[in-house]
# Entry
Amino acid sequence: GESVAVGHKRPTRLHYQERKKAMPPNAEDLFSGSGTAKGSSAGVPNSPSVGGGSGGDERALVWREDGGVSLKVPKFYPPSKRRQDAVAARFGAEAAEQLTMGEVAKHNKRDDLWIIVDGHAYDVTPFVEKHPGGWLPMVNMGGKDCTDVFANYHPARVYKTMLPAYYLGRVTDYHESKFVQGHRALRQQLLERGLFETRPGFYAWTYAWLASLFGGALWLTLGCQSVAAHLLGAAILALFWQQMAFVGHDTGHNAVTHSNATDSLAGLVVGNLTTGIGMAWWKRSHNVHHVCCNSIEHDPDIQHMPIFAVTDAIFKRFWSTYHEKWVELDGAAKALVSMQHWLFYPVMSLARFNLYVQSILLLAAPKEKIPHRTLEVVGLLGFWAWFVSLVHCMPASHGLAERLAFVLVSHMLAGVLHVQICLSHFGRDTYQGFAYNGEADEWFRMQVATTLNISCPEWLDWFHGGLQFQVEHHLWPRLPRHNLREAAKLVRKYCHEQGVTYHTLPWIQAQVQLVGVLKRTAMAVREAEKGGNQGATLKEVQATTIFECLDVASKG
# Structure
């Protein structure tokens, strides 16, 4: 049978034969069971260490995605006889049959790393340093059930061509709760409906829109003489950078062409060359952020001391696994954090300069393994070449002052992007240590608890660039952003049925919450200095307006 369901309305409206052309080379061979055509469960071997029930019937077919095409493939690909013999020699045949969640959990280090996928354990230690997404995401998931993470960050081919080589055995006490089965069924539904497929027309329109913005900014900057026109050109350039960042975000998640090679090269153009922000830096940081969202010790996106602290739990000295250094509330941090609710918007207006520096520092780090390092450098040099030339060639009647104003306006207005990013997580739950320890903090619950959506009408989707559906994006990062609104309907309904709070706020109210959280933490610093209480609760802060938050802070 065909591996792609028919009879469903697809955003791309591609027929099956057209979809087959879009499949990766040798896809027919890659996804079939041993000598078995796609869509058939016959002939899928069952190894001695494969039992039924740990993660469902391994011989069943499930929906996965590869190259942006939905495919129905075997859920489990058994290891080769050679691998089975190697495992038996290493542990003994009986030991390989009796792996437990607790045993796997012991192997969570960079040099000793096991994971669980669909109820089976894999020793991926030899692959840690080769991992295209970096070693940090793997270490953060070491010893854990990686079923959801693995499905959301890897194409279907990896299950057959790579994973079996690291096979250890079945995890005897692995269990899928009804809740987990339910949210995994949501992903199956999205795949079956073809919602992981990119709609070419969407990006054709997007690229035309970006070209018009860039062209308009160039014309106003170079073709006009007035200061007003030049500053308007700076404003449009800021909008161009914001909108281009959304495309960079899409390519970084392989959500455009769904080819790692193609999207990575496109990202170098979109990120390095046009915006000056290195894709290598972004991927290194962002991949970790997704895996351990809002973890105090592990998520770099909430580690902003000495300037910002989103919770007073950060005040206790901790080791940042991302930055590989100790973070503590020293004198400078106390002074800045105590005023962070006032500093937030000014800092966001200048945050772009920090990203330039971070991009350069990573490329200058000789020990870091960076794909396409030379192209990364060339891209950044290209950005600075065209941007400096643009500012220099601008017919500025007021000389240096006008050129400086152009640079500041373009960068300060582009700061709206950084506000949008912070809105998604600064006001949500944080936690210490690693997540994914059981039912209470499994994949779906953790992503929903640590993420905020922005409610907006569909006609404003262009402005938010997919960030308004952060919950759905965090659940399924490879899902194209033009299908996130449809996915949100399913997630909201499932959360309602399961009694899980689905967090969404309008644009302004989300900023009220964010400033309120920053104010609460700032008050905690001030009260700690006085030896008093820890300030208002988050619920109390959210009940106030942004102006009341700032007024209370100024009186404090």
